[in-house]
Amino acid sequence: MQSRFKLSLGALLVALALPSFGAPPVDPLDQKYGLPSQPAYIKHYEADKTGKVLLNPYLQVATKDFPAVLDVKSAPFNWVIDMEGRLGLIPEAAHPLGRTYAKGFFRPEDKSERKPGTRENYGHVSSLGGAPGRISGEILYDKGTNTYTINNKSGRYTKHNVDRTPEQLVEAAKLIREVVDPGNVAWGPVYFLLDYASAEIREKLLADPRLAFDDPKKKSRPHIVIMQGGPAQAFAEKPTVAAPAPVAVAAPAAKPAEAAAPVAEAPAPKPGKAKKPKAAQNDDPS
Amino acid sequence: MKAKPIVTLAASVALLLSAALPLTSIAQELVTPYVSVLKGEKNYWSGIDPINRDGTVNVVIEIPAGTTAKYETNKQTGMLELEQKNGAPRFVQYLGYPANYGAIPRSVLLKSKGGDGDSVDVIVLGQAVPRGAVVKGRVIGMLSLIDTGEIDNKAIVVAEDSPFAKVANIADLDAKFPGVTAILQTWFTSYKGYGKDGKLMLSSSGFKGRAETIKFIGDAILDFEHSVVTEADKRPLDEKGNPYLYRWPGARNVGE
After folding, report:
1. What pLDDT, in 10s, does the model give residues B158-178?
2. Of B66, B36, B64, which Cα lies nearest the Cα of B135?
3. If you count residue pairs, one on A and one on B, with CB atoms under 8 Å apart, how many are there?
4. Cross-chain residue pair B235–A244, CB shorter than 8 Å
5. Interface pTM (ipTM) of the complex?
6. Within 13 Å, how many C-alpha atoms sit on residue B164's CB side?
7. Which residues of B touch A252 (CB under 8 A)?
8. Which of A44, A62, A101, A243 is the most buried (most CB within 10 A)?
9. What does pTM read for this prediction?
10. Which residues of B touch A257 (CB under 8 A)?
11. What is the pLDDT of residues A93-114, one digit of tens each?
12. Is B256 within 8 Å of A286 when comparing Cβ atoms?
C-alpha cells in the first residue's frame, strides 16, 4: 500500500515537472527588445547578384566597451538591435547597387510610389546583412534644439511585427543613450510612431492622452513621446590624456589627441527659435 | 588565412646570371633583380570583405611588425608584391615597422579626392602576424600624415585577441599604453628621412578621432564599390524605368 502511494506520488511529481522540461528557454532579450524576426523585405538593390546583402560601410556596433560615435554631419542614422542584443548603427548613404530616380517611380506590383529625386540608400538590413533583428528605428538630429531624437521607424524590423511595443523602444533608447557617444549634442525625446506599430497597439495608443501629431491639422505621423530628453553621459573619448608630442621631429608640433577636439561640430541651440522636432524624417516607408 | 610565397622566375634567372658573372658583381646582381610575391587564397585587393557584421574591419597585413620589406597589394593581380624602386627591391632604411601594417581590402582613396589611388593604409596594434594574414580589429582613430604634400593618413586598428583589444579610442590608448602614439608618430614621420630642404619628408598634425576615421574608411569602401559596379551589376528596370519588386529568400517578403 505504502509503495503504491509512493509510486503515485512520484508519477504525479514527474507529470508536474514535464511541462517545464519541454518548454524552450526564454531569452530575456525577446521581452526586452522584441523577438528577432527576419526582415519584412529586402529592396531590389540591397542584395548583389549572388544574393548577398551588402553591409553599410559606416557600420558601428556599439557596446559599453566600444561606444559608437555620432557626427551630426552624417545624420540621420538607422539603428537596429541584433539577435545578441547589440546595437548596430548606420548613417544613410547611397547604395552602390542603387539608383536615383529623377522622376520618381511607380511599381505596379505593390502600387509603391516614390517622389522625384528618390535615391536608393542603404536601409536597416544593411547593418545586419539581412539577418534577423529586433526592434529598430532612426536617430534624427534636430538642429533647432541641438538634440538627437529616437524613434521606431523601420519597415523591416519594427513594422509588420506584432510584438513591438513602446516598452521595447524605451529599453532600446536606454541602451542607445548608454552606448552611443553623441558628442556635444544632447538627447531629445523618444517617439513611438503609431504608423509602425501593430493594429492592436495602434488602436490602444490612439486613445492615449499623450497622442500627438507632427501636423495636428493633417493628423500626420501620430506618435507618443515615451521618454523625455536628457543630457548625454560623459564618454572616455573626451580627453583624459593628451598624446605626447613626438620627440625630435622637425614636423609641425602634434595637436593634442583626437579627443581634444570637439567630437561633433554641433551648433548651439538658438533660444526662442527652436521648433518642435519632428517625430520622423520623411515618409519613405522603410 | 594561409598564403603561399612564390619566388618568381626572375629570382632564379638572377641566380643563374650571377653564377656566370665575375665575383665583384655577384653581390649586386644577387640583390637587384629580385621579385617576390605572395598569393593568398583570395584576391587581397578585391576578394575579401572590408567590414564584418560585428563592426570590425578586416586588414590585409602587408608588412609585419618589426620587418622592413615594403610589400604592397598589386591591384591587377590581387597579390602582395615586394615594391620595386629604381629596379631594386624596397626595404625601409630605418628601424623595422613598429606595428603590423596593411590595407583594408575593397577600399580606395581616389586621386580625384586627394588620395593616392590605393587602399586605406592601416596600422594594426597587436602581436606580430605573418605577411598576408587577414586581421580583424576595431578602428580607434587615425594618424594624420602628409607625405611630400599628399595626404597619407593611417587608420589605427586594435587587433582582436591582442593586449590592445580593449582600447576604445586614441585617448584610451594613451591612458593604457603610454608612449605608443608618440612612437607611431615619430616612426612614421621619420622613416623616410630628410628631404632636400633639410626637413623630414613626412609631417603629422596628430591624431584624428573615431567619427572622422569611420567616415574616412566608409567613404573609401563606398568609392571602391561605386568604382567597380556597372549598370550590368544592377537589377534591371522595367520598360518604364521602374524597379521590380524583389523577393529575397531570407525575408518575409511582405512588400515594401
Report:
1. 999 999 999 999 999 999 999
2. B64
3. 224
4. no
5. 0.86
6. 26
7. 203-205
8. A243
9. 0.83
10. 170-171, 174, 181, 206-207
11. 999 999 999 999 998 888 889 9
12. yes
